[in-house]
Each structure stands twice: as structure tokens, then as C-alpha cells.
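Reviewers asked in the last cycle whether our approach scales beyond single polypeptides. To address this, we selected a multi-component target totalling 408 residues and predicted its structure end to end. The input consisted of the following lines:
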Amino acid sequence: MDNPLNNPDLPRIGGKTWPEFIRLVENFHGYAAPGALLGGIMVELARERLLELRSERPVLFIVMAETYACLPDAVQLLTPCTVGNQRLHVLNLNRYALSFFAKPDGQGARVFVDNAKLGPWPHLRDWFMGITDKKDQDEALLCEDIRQGGAEACSVQLIKARPEFMSRERKGRNAICPICGEPYPLRDGESCLGCRESLPFELS
Amino acid sequence: MDNPLNNPDLPRIGGKTWPEFIRLVENFHGYAAPGALLGGIMVELARERLLELRSERPVLFIVMAETYACLPDAVQLLTPCTVGNQRLHVLNLNRYALSFFAKPDGQGARVFVDNAKLGPWPHLRDWFMGITDKKDQDEALLCEDIRQGGAEACSVQLIKARPEFMSRERKGRNAICPICGEPYPLRDGESCLGCRESLPFELS
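The resulting structure, written as C-alpha cells, was:
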């Protein structure tokens, strides 16, 4: 039987062919970043595993990404979870991993790139480990390694979210910050967080 | 002369009519959240102000949102800046404000909802200040207040980003974390951040 990955339209990601998915990434992310393409495969793996764990349909879920690099955009393109609707949480841990958590109990599936499985995919491995200089990267070979080897190079862990992660606090009433004069949630204290933390900008 | 805001297709947001913009928000964000609609108006204000400041074209920029609530999705829908391509930074300050910063020098325009200007828009004011209970909210009146009054209810500040905010560090080589066995950037230290911080999940 033919290897299905000889078909350049596979794998399907979010119901789309592989080339259609690449165009989706280009439009939203700005270019077909290898990390976003690999992220699409990881989203599919996490979603499938979570669905296997749950008998009820539909499964409501939230997502967590462990890096800001590329991965959040794959989630936002392929799931109802976005940063702005706060169903996608990004932790700045610099690990290339994402987790799907079912509501309300937080049963979850975490997908990560597994170093032990990168061997058969040298372009994927060298890019992922930061060995290849960007200028020396053969994008076509890397993309083909991701398409064919992305799913094989990942592992899945079953996890459970801590209860506080699954419950979302209500913002409540706003007050006017006595320092900057802007509205802010009363629950943040006597002044807004913007006036208590160091900001990356100043008035000009 | 007729008030242009008697025309329900105005204001145009990202080149789209107001009803088209609402559908865009529904598709990405999941529903026409008032915060995302107001966010679209704020994106337009910040972009216009930044373009007025700069003579060169095109202006390359990055964006900062001061809240996770809704606003990041307006930015991601209407600009090339996303969380995953790291041209959109979200600070968890709970202020409803966003800033556009021109590259490379960080000259910027910050748009915030100005409490002093909310008076003529009681539905917008009461929603924004958290006075109206969600179940008592008249969504149509609120949406109309946002459409007609959103731009008037905001103020713009000229700001300047700190230099470190405008420069993006390269990730460099990855190593294998001796604790979890996953790849992580060597610059993070002897183990990955995921193994040094408290995580919102555990293995199940």
C-alpha cells in the first residue's frame, strides 16, 4: 500500500489540505513559518487525543501554549480559542508544547516535540534544535520533513489542569485610577497595575 | 450636512463596513464582543495617528495591548501583528489601551478609553465601567453606542518605547532539559523554565 504521505495534500489540518493550510498560515501569520506548520500538526494531535478521552460531544476545551513562538497562531487558526477570548493561554516557558483541556474538569492532552523521535527527520531536527543557521536553511526540505515527520516527532502526555486554571475570575466593577485617571478593575487594588509596574514605554 | 454616523455601514474598520467588521469578529472571536468592536475602532485610531507621525511608507510597526480581554483579537484581525509572530505583545495590566510603535525607533501612539469622554454614551459607559450586569445589558444599544461614540470616547497619547522593547532577542541553540528531557533554549539556563516554574497542570 502506498504511504499516504507521498500525497502532498496530506496530512489534512483543520479539514484543509496541507497546501490550503500553508496559505492559511501565510495570510494570518505573515509567512509559512515552520513553527506554525508544525503547530498545526500538534493541534490536530492534541484535539484527537482529547476527543478519544471524552465520550460526550461536543467537547468544550481551552488551550495552553508553552511558548509565544508561532504555536499560538496555529491554535488561533484551527480552534475557537484565541488570546482575546481568553480560551488560549500562553505561558512564556520556551517549550514547544501545547495542551488541550476539557471543560469543566481540566482533563487534558499535552503534545510536545520529542527529541528522541527527531532522528529520522534531520532537517526538522537541525532547525528545531537551532543548529541550522536561518540563512543556510533549505525551507522546502524542512517543510517536507514537517509535513511527513511532524506527527511522528511528537509525543502526547495525559495531564490534568489544576482547578484554579479552569475557573475564570470575573473582572467586576471598574474604578478610576487616581494616578493615571484611566479605568481599571477595582479588584486590582488602589491604583491600576499600569501605574505600579515598570512599563516598556514613556510619554513623549 | 447629515451626520455620517447615521449611516449604519460606518465607521469603516480595516477597509470593511461596520457590519462586515462585526462578522469578522464573530468568526474569529466567537461572538461580537463589545470589547472587540471597540478594539477595532481603537486600532484604526492608533494606526491613523502613527501614520500622521511618519513620512516614510510603509510604516513597519509592532503593537502592544494592555489587557488580554478582547483587544488582542481586534489587533490580530486588523493588522499583520499576531501573538504567534510576536509583533503583538500583551501586557496583563487590565487597562483597555493599545499602542502602535513604529520600527525601528519606537515612536508610538497609545489609544485608551477616556473616562472623561464617556458621558454622552451611557450604554458604553455603564458597560465599560462594569456597572451594568451582563444579563441586563441591551446589546443592540451598547453596540450602537460603540459604533457612534467609540472614537469620541478615546484619547490618544504620543509615546516612545524603551529601546529594549523594540529589539527582539534571538532564541539561539536549543539544549535538552536534564529534568523533563524536552528541548529548550540554552540561554534559559541549566534547565527549562517549565521545570523551574509552577505549572497549571500535572501529569495524570
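Chain B has a mean pLDDT of 94. We regard this as preliminary and will revisit it once experimental data from Aim 1 are available.
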